[in-house]
Amino acid sequence: MANVKRREMLVKFAAARQQRGLSPAPAGEQASREATQARYFPNVELTTHEGKKVRFYDDLIKDKIVVINFMYAQCEGICPGITANLVKVQKILGDRIGRDIFMYSITLKPEEDSPKELQHYVEMHRVKPGWLFLTGKPDEIDMLRRKLGFSDTNPKLDKDKSNHIGMVRYGNEPRQWWAMCPGQAHAEWIVSSILWMDGPKRQQPQTGSRTVGETRTRG
Questions:
Q1: Are 33 and 141 in contact (CB under 8 A)?
Q2: In this model, does residue 3 exceed pLDDT 50?
Q3: How large is the average pLDDT for residues 120-138?
């Protein structure tokens, strides 16, 4: 994605003070969350690679720390490499994936990628449980892509789906903290960036092949 800075925010921080955990937000912050949801997180229906119907905001985003990227199964460019890299991220984060950090890969070609095709993709890349691959209606997938910031101001470049698969969006919905990073960055760096969203209380995965640094600045 062109001209995306390392720590570009989808939205500004909702509050300056630090919160611990995912405790219920005060009224003002709740109103801000609702406004952010209405603007950036359309509650469209998607289908997982397991065939389950889900709502994007209600079921996948609300009250969660999430990691989101776009892909498509027959991509011969950087998709397989990014998926392989995110498999490393999943391994490092261990059992936190699917428990308090959630990974989502959304197809850019829903007309081709049925749940069955996505299931095959999951098996081919040895993706473990807790990471969902999603498909849906083409027009709603395209709207979701744009809302999440996977777009280009140049219409010709924006039309090329391969221009929207290089970045990973991650964030903490209750805190309204959102950022992006390159999907081909070192897996340990991506993990450190994701854990930064969890604040100072947890700065390393509970399981995994190696320890990630315990501090993270806002760079």
A1: no
A2: no
A3: 96
